[in-house]
Specification:
The chain has 312 residues and is of the alpha/beta class. The strands form three sheets. Strands 1-2-4-3-7-8 form a six-stranded mixed beta sheet, with helices on one face. The longest helix is centred in the middle third of the chain and has 16 residues. The chain is globular and about 60 Å long.
């Protein structure tokens, strides 16, 4: 059997579904239900958040274009760690949303195009940080948060063993969900993403394994470095793996990230002592920011570049 055929066979084991939350956002998603699912047993769930190129409504692209995520429901991993695997798909746009388009994290900026010389709007991927106080949770990411209790009411999920990971735009979204919902996830694994370093204290007690490539030209590696430093400054103990020769696509390279020795065992060993309920309502409130003294500390020798919402 060819590799591509095997990947398609794996993909066909996931249920194609759509979730509509109270605000009217339609969220396509794929769900892997463990083989021989027993409703009398509690199962962990892994939430995977894809990159920007896989937005849409086809319900397959996130896993076809990012086949490395299929590692989570491969026979070997499932034999060792029976679990649910959830892959929502960010829509291109949402009704009443930002006219510039929908992203997991709508931290837009205005930049001058190198070739055209014209100003264009892009999400803040060229930043190595952003402030969640300046950017309310996106409609799509709130829909993802609202989907979790719906699945918990349908399936026998262990609320103490919810995990979140994602790459590129999904790495940003992983940080965003962790920062806005402290205590909800038992562990997180942001890959090539950026977050808000003033939230280090809210992340200090969450087990994290952060991945980035030192040669990443799409999402600067300093984004992960300053998040790790901020969490360490708040007495957290995140794991951090930086690949010296790695670019943006470290997640697709043999033996790295989800294939990193010990990663799966580490992830599935994490559990919250007390489950944190998920609110179904959309809110723009964020946890109280940690002290801004982190900025004065000169994290990582001046590579810190904190951006706030542009003023019109």
């Amino acid at each position: 059997m060819s590799t591509s055929t095997h990947a398609q066979d794996l993909l066909d084991t996931l249920q194609a579904r759509t979730f509509q939350d109270a605000s009217g956002v339609n969220l396509p998603y794929r769900l892997y239900v463990p083989e021989n699912y027993d409703p009398n047993q509690k199962y962990p769930l892994v939430l995977y958040l894809h990159g920007s190129g896989e937005r849409g409504d086809d319900n397959r692209l996130p896993l076809e274009a990012e086949p490395f995520a299929q590692t989570f429901f491969s026979p070997d991993v499932q034999a060792a760690h029976p679990s649910f695997f959830l892959v929502p798909q960010c829509p291109w746009e949402v009704a009443g949303g930002d006219p510039r388009g929908e992203f997991w994290v709508n931290n837009f900026e205005t930049v001058l195009g190198e070739s055209s010389g014209e100003e264009t709007l892009h999400p803040g991927w060229t930043w190595n940080s952003y402030s969640i106080a300046d950017y309310p949770v996106s409609a799509s990411l709130q829909a993802v948060t609202n989907l979790l209790p719906a699945l918990q009411s349908e399936f026998s999920l262990d609320a103490n063993r919810l995990y979140v990971t994602g790459w590129s735009m999904g790495g940003d979204a992983t940080w965003d969900l962790l920062m806005r919902n402290p205590g909800l996830f038992a562990a997180g694994a942001p890959v090539a993403g950026v977050g808000d370093p003033t939230q280090g204290a809210s992340l200090a007690s969450t087990p994290l394994w952060v991945f980035h490539g030192a040669e990443d030209t799409s999402m600067d590696v300093s984004g992960s470095r300053i998040m790790v430093s901020a969490i360490q400054a708040a007495e957290g103990n995140p794991r951090y793996t930086e690949y010296a020769d790695g670019g943006h696509y470290i997640v697709a390279e043999e033996g790295r990230v989800y294939q990193e020795p010990g990663f799966m065992d580490w992830l599935f060993a994490q559990s919250n002592t007390v489950a944190v309920p998920v609110e179904r309502t959309r809110t723009s409130q964020v946890p109280e920011p940690a002290t801004l003294g982190l900025l004065a500390m000169g994290l990582l020798g001046g590579r810190f570049c904190f951006r706030r919402r542009p003023v019109a």
